[in-house]
Amino acid sequence: MSPLRELRIGLVGEGAMGRVHAGVLSGLPAVRIAALVAGDVDAGAAFASEWRIPRCSSDLADCLQDDDIDALVIASPSGLHELHAVQAVEAGKPALVEIPVSLTLAGAERVAVAQRRSGVPVMVAHTRRFAAPHRHLRERLRAGDFHLQHLVVETYFMRRSNLNMFGQPRSWTDHLLWHHACHSVDLAAWLLDGEEFDVWASQGPMHPELGIAMDMSIGMRARRSGTLVTMALSFNHKGPFGGFYRYIGEEGTYHVFRDDIKDGDGAVVALGEHAPPAFEAQDRAFIDALRSGAKPSCDAEAVLPAMHLLDRIERAMNQSRAA
Known about the structure:
By secondary structure, the chain is of the alpha/beta class. It contains 9 helices and 13 strands. It has helices at about 15-25, 40-50, 60-65, 80-90, 105-120, 130-145, 175-190, 280-290, 305-320; strands spanning about 5-10, 30-35, 55, 70-75, 95-100, 120-125, 150-155, 195-205, 215-220, 230-235, 240-250, 255, 260-265. A 7-stranded mixed sheet has the order 8-9-10-7-11-12-13. A 6-stranded parallel sheet has the order 3-2-1-4-5-6, sandwiched between helices. The radius of gyration is 20 Å and the shape is globular.
């Protein structure tokens, strides 16, 4: 068997998610991060040194115009994802774009149109789709041996100041709906593929400095099956970090946290063959698509149902606040 051709990746973003992708990509065979595009030059230089990335620039054009760069991984601030994804497509560079692909439905549709017209793939990092527990339960749903009555999601952080997941200062403001709820809204739409949903939502007071709602309550109901989805989200939470999923089904209850799954009695559920962590499985899927030329399973078109739902949820929140 001939050795794999080395894929050279341009990484955009030196923040928390840039660090996560660097950790995964550095462990994949015949993959090299050949360039870093950083918003902060000093932080970028330190990041590039740590991960042995030979080039660091503050100009995305350096990667877009470089024929030696095969693809981009875009982990820039959320408000730049849409712009950077479209620029990548226009330059003919396939891209893995961090969630959310855009902070608006219109922006997500622009990325999907750019992908469709160019044929250059844009995969979006909807990481929950790649977690073994969620994939296991989706397979059971599709096989008909698990019937989901209620998916309950708790997404909790302490985020009263503008810090990232590693406690480092951010130059931009995170968003509970378009970022964190996006994970769970997409998961529900993916689990219950083909369902139409009713939605309702409300949000708490706006933070006086950050200018965002710090708490949200979101509900969805699948019209055909009647399955309920309930999401509680908070940036005010003093306690465990991250997202917890409770699958309440006819045949049992399951608790999912990241790559772990337990049943209603707290016993670990064996998933058979060892599956890689979600972030690794996701980035591997992107690399495999690059090598094979196949369309990524989670591309800009595939995530549009979730973006439509988020737009409807945002309008429901605005109506609730105005009432």
